[in-house]
Structures are given as structure tokens and as C-alpha cells.
């Protein structure tokens, strides 16, 4: 049995695990900076958007609807629906980080992005013996290379976006980011069933207003995944 890692070692472990995501975080941030500037936002608004919201998918949804002159309530509702996955992330992390002090949980919530969640939940499940402090140290490490570079990439995109050649196709970062996170998580039949349900549901409901189809598909995926997990456990019990 390996010796438990120190808090410092776990922080740097999380940091190293987060670094590869810079390959997609940087172009994603650049793309948002470019898009927001072209949409007419000034530098302060662009950076306020990224620093306060720190949620790329929701930011792009809001930006698109703002460009379409949609009502404020619709913009807020669509952005919140896109970000409902964060509520699912929070529920999944609560058994691991729920006993942390309020200020630490506030920081965890603020820095929670798809990448930090995916890395952390995978690490926690692989190392169930980790203490609360160790889990927080790993989480902080995973966030450290990702979030600051999101701000910096957004700033760079807003400042020099006009000089970035269109053939660079920065929008490739969005699908690659999610593929990189989801792939390693498909470890059981329930995970695969949930993933397939979400993909099929999102495609079938693409005609709905921004974010609504994704929300329904996500809920359906959770139901299917949970049901498959129940069936799997029952089959194991019968065989046992």
C-alpha cells in the first residue's frame, strides 16, 4: 500500500493533471474574447463576463442571445439552464467536500468548471482514503492552471482578436474539451447509457430554445443512468 501524499504533493498532482486542458482552455478563452469584442462589448465588460461568470458555455449562450436582442429574462434563463450541470457536479462533490468550512466551499463553487470537476471526482473515486484536506489540496491544484489561463486567454482574445487568422478555427476547442473529459469517465454500462441518452436527446431536441434541449437531455440521461445502475446492482445481487 502506497504512502499517503502530502497536501503539497497532492496540490502539484492536481496541477499536473490540469495542465493538459490548457490545450483547449486557451483557444476557448481566445474565442470568447474575440466573439465578445466583435459583439460590441468593451474590455471591462468582456473581462467582467469571464471573471464573474467563469462558465464558457453559458457565456457563449448569453452572448449569442444578446446578439439576437433577446429579452434579459430569456438570456438569464438560457444561461442558467446551460449551467444546470454545475448543480449535478455540486451534488456529486458534496459527499467529498461538503464538510469543508463555508468559505472553502464558496471557493470550490466559484472555481468549479467542467475540467476541475472531472479531474477531482475521478481522483476521489480512485483514492477513497483521501482526507478532506487532501481532496481540497488536489482540487486547488487542478484549478490553478485552468482558471487563471481562462482569464488571460479571454483578455488576449479581446485585445488582439482581430489579428487572429480565421483559419486557426479556435472553435475546435469546445467539442474537444468535452470529449477529453467524458472519455475517461465512461467506465460502466450506466455511464455509457447516460452518455448515449444525453447525445441522442440533445440532437432530437436541438429545435428548442437555447439550453432547454440540453437541460431535458441531461435530466433524461440521469434517469437512464440511474436506472441502468439499479439493474446492474440487482443482477450482481442475484448472481451473488
TrEMBL record:
Its keywords, alphabetically, are: Cell membrane, Membrane, Transmembrane, Transmembrane helix, Transport
Entry's transmembrane regions:
21-41, 47-65, 72-92, 136-161, 168-186, 192-225
Q: What is this protein called?
A: Branched-chain amino acid transporter AzlC
| GO biological process terms held by the UniProt record | L-valine transmembrane transport
The record's similarity note reads: Belongs to the AzlC family.
GO cellular-component terms in the record? plasma membrane
Give the way it sits in the membrane. Answer: Multi-pass membrane protein
Location of this chain's protein in the cell? Cell membrane
